[in-house]
Amino acid sequence: MTRQAAFRRDPAPASQLVLAFVLTAAVLLVGVFAWPGARESLFHVFNALGGIESTQPFWAGVNALADTWLTLGLLLPFVLWRPRLAILLLFAAIVATAITHSLKPLLDVLRPPGVLERDAFNLIGHSIRSEAFPSGHTVTAFTFAGSLILGLRPRWPWVALLLAVASVMGISRMVAGVHWPTDVLAGAIVGLLSVVVAVWLVGRWPAARHARWPVPVAVFVCAVCALGAPWVDVGYPLGVWANWMVAFIGVVALFVGTLRYWPGRMSRSLDRRLGRLGSRWR
User: What is the pLDDT of residues 106-154, one digit of tens each?
Assistant: First the structure.
């Protein structure tokens, strides 16, 4: 069975939960657009969390983690663990980037700082006024989660956890005061559907599935993003802990990856342990 056919017929919860999430987000998006004042009301509900000073470093860090640079760094251990993810991630990133950066300037929706008075909402980090729809950070978060879900096909608790983490990243954009709920919902839809399209493309292009170059390219790019994270300004000074966390994860991933791929007894032992970890994931 081809990868494309396997995705269409797969009864596993991975595909089902992703589809259910997309449909739910689409219904909510239509509802928020249709209900007068819903966009602003929901924004203020979530943005109120940004007014709690003790939680601002957490939300700033979550916003930082949804930045493309840091998210690519977070992908390093997964690419080293399951190299076949590389081509899926590449296609998903291309599709998501093309859709996002076409819609943003085309629609040019004003963000909350471009609509509301400065004292009417909480702002964490830098202020951006235009090109709100869809939320690019949310697209990145759900492309990341969707690639792991449809690329690894884990059990449903892991699927639910990945979707929940991506959702928190999306919500953080409203907490930070730079996106409307409609931007976040659209970002979730674009991110997940980009991965679905990527799965279809991989299934239709056998040469890409068997190509070797995507793996070293993905490892190099993710490693550069992970190790360079502490020196990248993503606009959230309070969340600099996230930059260092990504760098730490990257160093550990490269160390374990070196042990795994280095010839000898240690690599075979590590492969067996990682194999057992993979069976629990599934």
Answer: 999 999 999 999 899 999 988 889 999 999 999 999 999 999 999 998 8
Q: pLDDT of 195-238, one tens digit each?
A: 999 999 998 888 777 788 888 999 999 999 999 999 999 999 99
Q: Which of 208, 191, 207, 206 minimizes the C-alpha distance to 150?
A: 191
